[in-house]
Every structure is written in structure tokens, then in C-alpha cells.
Amino acid sequence: MNQPQELQNKKTILSAVQPSGILTIGNYLGAIRNWNLLQEQYNCYFCVADLHAITVRQVPAELRKRTYEAFAVYMACGLDPEKNTLFVQSHVPCHAELAWVLNCYTMFGELSRMTQFKDKSARHSENINAGLFTYPALMAADILLYGADYVPVGQDQLQHIELARDVANRFNNLYSDTFVIPEGLLPKAGAKVMSLADPTKKMSKSDENPMAYVSILDPKDVIVKKFKRAVTDSGSEVKRGEDKAGINNLITIYSAFTGKSPEEVEKEFEGQGYGAFKLAVGETVADTLAPVQDKFNALMGDKPYLESLMKKGSEQAYRRASKTLSKVYRKVGFAQVK
Ligand code: ATP
Ligand code: LTN
Q1: pTM, to two decimals
Q2: Which residues have a Cβ under 8 Å from the Cβ of 10 and sit 6 or more positions away?
Q3: In CATH, what number does 210-290 get?
């Protein structure tokens, strides 16, 4: 490979978020903030997974807008396009191509066990399409195309990474070593942020109730209001407990944003009620996100610049991905003419 020496020694990272809504603090804590910490040490690919997003119906103009927004959020959160390959999934055709091949090495039974499929098909019972079902094969393609060693994600995605490992091992055993076997990487805090409206459910950007999530781009007054209204349990002490999903979640969020341990948080709010705590969580989250929002607004004001970065990113990604794809095509027996 014609890569600079330093890249050859670095391990590779790949991750992605779907542009299926405005990114939430769940995406931020579970994924993007963690990516930031990895960009110095690893050879990183971060992608906006638009092919994944159409497994659920999208309004075309909104999907397009959210794709730009997600790309700008990546950068506003600190991802440097000079240090990482930032790209849009549909700009690199190898993803769809490898996904087809991997579909033929992924079992119906394996896909049937995926929690995200079960959840989303229950939520969208009018549209249980084949793409929603085979989605993990596309995700496996995303990861395996780049030879990713690590995949930094929130907890909900570990099951898909496990499946990608199984498919990669199956392919390697049938032919010969082709794919690197990837490992999931969870953040220290915030691997599973729960909904503010129902703290037994994961916070999700596509939740139909906007009070359930805090978007990275929500203004301060909205963030404070959402935390104020967050569903909490009966009781008033800021203390974790088994039957206290609501307060557990707020403690997790505050602790992830401040770097304080949950014990320290409980101490800080000893003797104060839920009201004071919720206000502190809201203000802390809003103040941390304010500089991200400023940077985001500046980037969204310069579309040609964003597009030039998307183009550069997809060319860089294509160079790496197309090598893996032609290796796979050769191994499965497709005729290749020069
Ligand atoms: P959707 O609502 O469209 O399913 P989502 O909000 O669940 O989307 P994804 O695009 O599926 O988000 O996830 C992108 C990344 O963010 C993944 O690494 C995922 O694990 C992480 N993530 C998503 N939601 C949370 C959450 N509530 N807590 C922690 N990490 C999360
Ligand atoms: N499936 C993920 C998003 C995603 C992803 C990936 C994550 C698509 N491709 C590759 C890690 C690696 C999701 O829905 N959260």
C-alpha cells in the first residue's frame, strides 16, 4: 500500500451514525465523543451511514439535509478531516457491493436474532422490508472493507459487531484469510443513554416524541426544559437504585458530561431534590454543547467547503475499500478482466 509509514503501523478504526434524525447526546456520548479521543492514535474512517437510514422511510429532502448535518456535526465535535477519513456511505459504491456478497454468507437464523431488527420491525410494522432484516450484512461490509481492528460504538451495536465477526470468520475459513476480525470498543461512560420520556428504553434520534431525546443542536432553553420534564421515579433523593431507571440515567449523563464518578455526583447533590439536580444536568449539557453548535452553524453556512471534504473523503475511502472488494471478488470466483 502507498501509505505513509506512520499509517502502516497504526491500527484501523471504523464507525458510523445513521442520518435518520438530528444526532442526540446518546450518539455523542456513545459514539462521537469517543471517536475524538481515538483520532490521534489510529487510522480512522468515520462514515455517515445513509444507506442504512433508508431501511426506515425517510423524506428525501430531509435525508439529504441530515446527511450534511451529520457530516458537519462530526467536524463540530472535533473530528479533523485532515487526520481522519470522513465520508458519506453512498458515495463509496463498495459498501453496497460487498454487502450483497456478505448477504450470501449471513444466515437467516442469525439475522432473526438481532434485537434492533425486532425493535424496529415492531415500531414500523407497516414496513418490515428486506433491507431492515439484512442491515447487519451492510454494517459488516462497512467494517470489513477497511480492515478495521476496532469499532467504537454504543452498547446497542455490539450484537451487530459480533455478527460481523462471525461472518468474517466464516468467509476466512471457507477461502483463506481475507478479513481482519473486528472488535467493538465501548466508551467508559455513556455507552447506553436512556430515553428521557421512558428511561427503560434507549434514547433514539428517531423517537417520535422529541421530549425523549436531547439533540446535539437543541438550544439551551429547550435542553433545560427537556431535562426538567425528564421522567423520574417516585422519591426525591439523587441516588442510584435498582428501581430508579430515571435518576440512574440522569446521573449517568451528568457523570459522562462532567467526568465525575456517579458516587461524586450523589455526594454533590446530597440533600438537594430532583429539581435542582435536573437543572444542573440541563445547564451542564447545554454549556458543553454550545461551542459544538457554534462550529456547526459556521460549517453549515459553507456547503461548498463541506462538499469538497465529502469528495476528498470518499476518494480516500474508495482507495482502501476497492482493494478489499477486488480481493473478495477474486476469492469467491468472479471472473476478473483487466
Ligand atoms: P435510530 O433512532 O435511527 O435507530 P440511533 O439514535 O439509535 O438511531 P444510530 O445511528 O443507530 O443511533 O447509532 C449511532 C451510534 O450511536 C452507534 O454507535 C450507537 O451505538 C450509538 N448510540 C445510539 N444511541 C445511543 C444511546 N442511547 N446511548 C449510547 N450510544 C448510543
Ligand atoms: N448500525 C449502526 C450504524 C452503523 C455502524 C456501521 C456503526 C452503520 N454502519 C459500522 C459501526 C460500524 C447503528 O444503527 N447505530
Answers
A1: 0.93
A2: 41, 42, 43
A3: 1.10.240.10
